[in-house]
Amino acid sequence: MTVTKADLVNLLSDSTGMSKAEVDEVVNGFLYRIIESLERGDRVEIRGFGSFFARERDNRLVKNPRTKEIVSVDRRFVPVFRPAKHFRETVNQQRLKESSGDS
After folding, report:
1. Residue 9 burial class via C-beta count within 10 angstroms: exposed 0-12, middle 13-18, buried 19 and up
2. Domain 43-103 annotated CATH 3.90.700.10
3. How would DSSP label each residue in the chain?
4. Measured between alpha carbons, how far is 50 from 48 in angstroms, rounded to an integer?
5. Least buried of 20, 22, 56, 88, by fewest C-beta within 10 Å?
6. 9-55: per-residue pLDDT in tens?
7. Is 23 exposed, middle or buried (0-12, 13-18, 19+ CB in 10 A)?
8. What average pLDDT is seen over the chain?
9. For the chain, which residues make up each domain, given as ranges?
10. Residue 73 forms beta bridges with which residues?
11. Beta pairing partners, 46
């Protein structure tokens, strides 16, 4: 199952009592500020959740799998999310519990 931004807005609206329009504005503002910070080269750290940062990727040569042609990919920065330790462990434990119950 995929949880969309609209799903998050609905869940937050239901749990906070705020209107969907207000929650949508807050969520969009939150995401925009993360993107804006990464564009400036800043790291965004949310304690207990994780951190967002931009990782530099050097230029390199890659092979197009369809045409077998070698092409150059320019240097670039890619956004990265690293979950906090507790977040990783909690998700792992829950997923392991769920998958062992399926057997």
Report:
1. buried
2. no
3. ----HHHHHHHHHHHH---HHHHHHHHHHHHHHHHHHHHTT--EEETTTEEEEEEEE--EEEE-TTT--EEEE--EEEEEEEE-HHHHHHHHHHHHHHHHHH-
4. 6
5. 56
6. 999 999 999 999 999 999 999 999 999 999 999 999 999 999 999 99
7. buried
8. 95
9. 1-41, 43-103
10. 60
11. 50
Tokens 């929650």, located at residue: 23
Cα distances (angstroms) measured from residue 76 to each of 57, 59, 87: 5, 7, 28
Name the region of 6 (left: φ>0; alpha: ψ -120 to 50; beta: rest): alpha
The predicted pLDDT at position 85 comes to: 97
Asked if 53 contacts 44 with a C-beta cutoff of 8 angstroms, the reply is yes
- CA–CA gap between residue 66 and residue 46 (Å, rounded): 41
Residue with tokens 């749990």: 15
Residue for token pair 């609206």:
13
Whether pLDDT at 103 is above 60: no
For residue 85 the two structure tokens come to 């330790």
